[in-house]
Amino acid sequence: MSSDISRDDAVRASVSMDASGLCMVPEGVARPASADEVVELVRQAAAERTPITAAGGQTSTTGASISDRGVLLSLRAMDKILDLDPAARTARVQPGVLVGDLKRAAAEHGLLFAPDPTSEEESTVGGAVACNASGARSLRYGATRPHVLGLTVVTASGETVQVRRSGLEKNTVGYAMAHEPVDWFVGSEGTLGVIVEAELALLPAPGRVIGLGVPFASERDALAFVVAARESAALGARCLEFFDERAFEIARRAHGGDGWAAGARALVYTEDAAADADAEPPLDAWLELAERHRALDADVLVFDGEGPLREARRMRHAVPATMNERGSACRAAGGRKVSTDWAVPYRLLADAIEEARGVADRAGVEQAVCYGHAGNGHPHQNFVARDADELRRIEGVVEQTLRHVLTLGGTVAAEHGIGKIKRRWLPLQMTPAQLGVMRAVKRELDPDGIFAPGNVL
Q1: Which residues make Cβ contacts (< 8 Å) with residue 392, sequence separation at least 6?
Q2: Contacts of 394 (CB under 8 A, 6+ apart)
Q3: Are 389 and 415 in contact (CB under 8 A)?
Q4: Are 217 and 193 contained in the same domain?
């Protein structure tokens, strides 16, 4: 292939790891700076049947952004915000733009890019679209998908196509799965095309936001509070984030020490927003609900204003960042962090977590750090496998947990996609007919299978 592809060992090693704990060294690395360069690279790859895997900030927890086959296509150099239209509330961006940079650009116009992956300062818009990223505030705003208005995609033949949402409220033409081609690519994890531009919807930024850190002596009380808050007509939570005792210990240290709610067994972090900067979010109603659910009300913290809210986000981000560090320290021995993102109907979350812990106990596996999006019934279990044998046992625990999750009407993956790590569990949830439809779409859009080998299918 082209001389624009580096075969240098150091360059290849620099893109061989993401947040999954896997290491895959590609055969070559390309770093295009324009859509035209992507087209040229894809055409060469297609002609030579060379696999090509697109990557952004490489924050994937599933191995989706690394590969040991063919060329790793790093899109980080394509990092321009091409247009931001405050009147239309839209942004047009290249795939390498960091989510955090787009959020700040939108905020200058009183607007909000709603998807908020915890890794927003490292993750790219292209990656967020490719895995349909969400985050804490997806409780209010949803994942990335509904905020994508249009995409420019380079297909496996090297053709550049533009797909846009129709905006139709009614449509009975053909199968529903074919109505909105935008949705073919959102969440496809790079397997169907390379996104080179995205048009995104922006929302009016709230005038005022408060955050609340609500500690509990009982995990069951914390999760009952989450259910009550979600179902309250008086409250409008943007997020309902759960931290078990182990996760709260990490968050507490990140916040500045061991003094906060030292006797707590769980924490719920929530945010409420008002459209008007002078409006008062319903703080009293939140505190009353917390008291009814036996919160440690003397230890409730209020995060009011831009600086305190940034601190709350930093505290939340400390949990996965710490677990990534613990997992990385075990790589040499064949271990790594093992992260789940299963989900169940939110009323069933307490029972699902209890059963997941029982599975780990019965297998003699150290309990995971458990935290995440309880308002959506969606926690993260972060295990650390210290060696290859422990990794095998933890993966067995995860599979047993997922089988139970599915009996509750849940999903094996709610946020981070399938990538390479979770591919083995896809048949637990999807029928042969569903998998067949997915393979048919893959064959139609990528007949030679050059895009993102090993991801999803």
Answers
A1: none
A2: 338, 365, 383, 385
A3: no
A4: no
Q: What is the pLDDT of residue 3?
A: 54
Give the pLDDT confidence of 126-135 residue by residue, as tens digits.
999 999 999 9
Task: State both tokens at 109.
Answer: 């116009």
Domain that includes residue 133, residue range: 81-204
For residue 55, list its beta bridge partners: 74
Please say whether the beta carbons of 55 and 75 come within 8 A: yes
Q: How many CB atoms lie within 10 A of CB 12?
A: 18
pLDDT number for residue 2: 57
| Residue 90, Cβ density class (10 Å: 0-12 exposed, 13-18 middle, ≥19 buried) | middle
Q: Give the contacts of 229 (CB within 8 A, at least 6 positions apart).
A: 235, 237, 240, 268, 270, 286, 289, 375
Helix (H, G, I), strand (E, B) or coil at 408: coil
Provide the sign of the torsion angle of the four alpha carbons 295, 296, 297, 302, taken in this order. Answer: negative
State the CATH number of the domain containing residue 378.
3.30.70.2740
pLDDT digits (tens, 9 = 90+) for 188-235: 999 999 999 999 999 999 999 999 999 999 999 999 999 999 999 999
Write 392-395 long-range contacts (CB < 8 A, 24+): 393/363, 393/364, 393/365, 394/338, 394/365, 395/338
The full DSSP string for 109-140 is TTEE-----TTTTT-BHHHHHHTT---TTHHH
Specify the pTM.
0.94
Burial of 399 (0-12, 13-18, 19+ CB in 10 A): middle
Q: Count other C-beta atoms under 10 Å from residue 317's C-beta.
A: 16
Residue segments in the chain with a per-residue pLDDT below the cut of 50 = none
Q: Which two tokens stand for residue 156?
A: 């496996």
Same domain, 365 and 254: no
- What is the chain's mean pLDDT, rounded? 96
Task: Provide φ and ψ at 134, rounded to 5°.
Answer: -130, -125
Residue 220 within any structural domain of the chain: yes
Q: Per the structure, how many domains does the chain have?
A: 3
Backbone angles phi, psi at 223, to 5 degrees: -75, -30
Domain-located, residue 428: no
In the chain, % helix, strand, coil (3-state, to 5) comes to: 40, 25, 40
